[in-house]
Amino acid sequence: MTQSPGALLGALRTSPPLVQCLTNYVAMNIAANVLLAAGASPAMVSDAEEAGEFAGIAGAVTVNIGTLSAPFIAGCHAAIAGAKAAGRPWVLDPVACQATALRRRVSAEMVAAGPTIVRGNASEVLSLAGEESQGQGVDGRDEVDAAAPGARRLAEKTGAIVAVTGAVDLVTDGTRVARIAGGSIYMPMNTAIGCSLTALCGAYATVADDPFDATVGALAHFAEAGRAAHPLADGPGTFGPRFVDALRALTPEALDRTAEVRFQ
Ligand SMILES: Nc1ncnc2c1ncn2[C@@H]1O[C@H](COP(=O)(O)OP(=O)(O)OP(=O)(O)O)[C@@H](O)[C@H]1O
Ligand SMILES: Cc1ncsc1CCO
Ligand SMILES: [Mg+2]
């Protein structure tokens, strides 16, 4: 690893990047607040008429297929083309891509467009890798380790960094593998936390030389904020605001001191 999570967090806080988020109705407000607390500047811009143009001024683009519609898909393609034309990183969150024919088609088209980073739960990554998935709608129902071989193959085939999230997260570029521990059992009980993490991967990608380091950094930031917020919460409801507070409170020094990142 060339740039540590703390070094990248320090860079974010010094100069908060503009991140264009094309995300779902559920995540819209949650992801924006997460980015602001973490140290980035979110803009939810998804209409096809302006999404490509906006990608030219954004530091990164993040695309999440959680609530699909024809106009939204057109906006995603415009933003992806804009990001590629401007040489900006873009991140794909293939929400529930195993669930329907539309999601399988749209997620496959987007993977073929060459994302910088793909971030999903284990069930989504298994499906993208062409394997059997137990996912229940947007909720993951598979273990991260079960998706590890598929994640490596997907990364190798597409050139994307693939992040599989769950109790212990995994990041791979097909060769390197990192595992990130931490977080809280309340995280999967809080809707759109994963969608927000995808948006944060975009923010980290703007300050990293290597999108592998960016992905590890964003996941470590979430893991440590989740760990810190857990004992302050009475349950999933109070966890949400505590988690946002913890994203903000975490310092670059504390992140590097406590992050549990293992490389293999
Ligand atoms: N059992 C767990 N223990 C600790 N952290 C967890 C656990 N499950 C998920 N997380 C953390 O929650 C965050 C979101 O991961 P998750 O796999 O739940 O995403 P997701 O299924 O795409 O979420 P959503 O679609 O609801 O936004 C990650 O930071 C992950 O590490
Ligand atoms: C609940 C839900 N439904 C579509 S997207 C979403 C947010 C979590 O992925
Ligand atoms: Mg998700």
TrEMBL record:
Gene of this entry: thiM
GO biological process, one term: thiamine diphosphate biosynthetic process
Pathways per UniProt: Cofactor biosynthesis; thiamine diphosphate biosynthesis; 4-methyl-5-(2-phosphoethyl)-thiazole from 5-(2-hydroxyethyl)-4-methylthiazole: step 1/1
Family: Belongs to the Thz kinase family.
Record: residues binding substrate: M44, A192
Pfam families registered for this protein in UniProt: HK
Role description: Catalyzes the phosphorylation of the hydroxyl group of 4-methyl-5-beta-hydroxyethylthiazole (THZ).
Binding site for ATP: R119, T165
CDD domains: THZ_kinase
Name of the protein in its database record: Hydroxyethylthiazole kinase
This protein's UniProt keywords: ATP-binding, Kinase, Magnesium, Metal-binding, Nucleotide-binding, Thiamine biosynthesis, Transferase
InterPro entries linked to this entry: Hyethyz_kinase, Ribokinase-like
Names of required cofactors: Mg(2+)
The keyword Transferase appears for this protein: yes
Coiled-coil ranges per UniProt: none
EC identifiers of the protein: 2.7.1.50
Origin organism lineage: Bacteria, Pseudomonadati, Pseudomonadota, Alphaproteobacteria, Hyphomicrobiales
Entry keyword Transmembrane: no
Enzyme class: transferase
